[in-house]
Amino acid sequence: MIFTDSSFYPDVSPGYLVRVIHQMSVAAIDRTLAEDGMTATQWMTLVSLYFNHADTCAGLARRMAHDKGAMTRIIDQIEANGWVLRQRDPDDRRVVRLTLTDAGRAAALSAKQKVIACWNGFLADWSEREVEDLVQMLQRLRNTMEESDACQG
């Protein structure tokens, strides 16, 4: 499908659909993790640290497509819960490294099981092949967007 003025509207717009799906999933995960005193965004941050996607606030903000100020507030919250430690880099005192505490690792892994159950619930009527295809297509789209300059004015 090539989009045209007459064929491009919200229900076929990849950006719109991805955004709505993201908002719906965050709301569902927020409800799922509420009893643990955790939000979906806090969980995504813990998991990003757990999988070593970044180890600084700025790195997490880039990786998770968040505003740096918002990421700082999220780190403040998870630090207050005892899930992360901030430590100055010994080689560059301007850099603050983030590490999960034992409690943070445990919270991330416990929440991961609940998030898995949530997504398995969303996809219960999908075949394993359909789920694999969806993930592959989303990964392909992400990679294409990372490498593309299609929207560079």
What does this structure look like?
The structure is a single chain. By secondary structure, the protein is mainly α. It has one domain: Arc Repressor Mutant, subunit A, CATH 1.10.10. Helices cover 61% and strands 7% of the residues. It has helices at 14-33, 40-50, 57-64, 68-80, 102-122, 128-147; strands at residues 84-88, 96-100. Strands 1-2 form a two-stranded antiparallel ribbon. Strand 1 and strand 2 (96-100) form a beta hairpin. Helix 1 crosses helix 5 (102-122), helix 2 (40-50) crosses helix 5 (102-122) and helix 3 (57-64) packs across helix 4 (68-80). It is globular. It starts with 13 loop residues before the first helix and ends in a 6-residue tail after the last helix. The mean pLDDT is 93.
- CATH C-level class is Mainly Alpha
Taken in chain order, the helices and strands follow as HHHHEEHH
Poorly predicted ranges = none
Mean pLDDT: 93
Count of distinct structural domains: 1
Give the overall form: globular
N-end to C-end Cα span: 23 Å
Count the E strands.
2
The order of strands across the largest sheet is 1-2
Please give the radius of gyration in angstroms: 18 Å
